[in-house]
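Project standup — Tuesday

K.O.: blocked on the structure for the chain from last sprint. Re-posting the sequence here as requested.
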Amino acid sequence: MKGTRRQLLMGAAALPWLAGAAEAQEAAFSIETLVFESRGKPIRAALYIPARPNGAAVVFLHGSGGIGPAYLTLAEQFAAEGFKVLVPAYYDAAADDGVRPEPVMDAWRAVGSDAVDWMIGSGIDRRRVGVMGYSLGSYVAVDGALGNSRAAAAIGVAGGWDVYVPRPPRRRIPVLVIQSENDTHVSPESTRRWVDFLRQADVPVRLQVVRGAGHLYTPGQWTEVQRLASDFFQRTLL
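H.V.: unblocked you, prediction finished:
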């Protein structure tokens, strides 16, 4: 299924997680909705295809509230820069019951890994596929990328030890952790503990702080997050 964000929204009854999106910048990118499989379950996703691809791709994993307009705007900004972007609805693999036992977390991590594999299968060099997540998605993205994923780089935004206890990493790919200075949901101490844990495991990790930001970003703060993320992916994927 192809079309602009407005056309996608016309099918909002079938894809309610796209509700609230605005019109696409058609000259810079196009949008498709698709379904891929993860452990036998169909996973819905939005795919952003740049008009002028730079050869790299980003998989973005949403926060606990599901896919929302801020994440789609982030995907648009990446696509406008030339990145191919996939935003999967990983709750399709397992519902969020708030308890989040290990099998549920593992199912979500598998979605991230399978989304990376989908990107590679679409023709993107595996060395140029990165994964990024916000809040709950930050753990799903980074912990998954340091496990069995084929992602070449990973970014965690507004995440930390408070979200979930990380596993010992199996891979040593570049990681960027973006911390909100005034986060009261995921404490700055929790984020730094996560960074220290990764560094002690010899993961090449950088920490960037969004000054004045709480857990929920303003549009301007999201723009800053995207700038930091884009700079990191430009260095690690291109």
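K.O.: great, moving the ticket to review. Residues 1-17, 19-24 have pLDDT under 50 and may be disordered. The CA atoms of residues 161 and 190 lie 5 Å apart.
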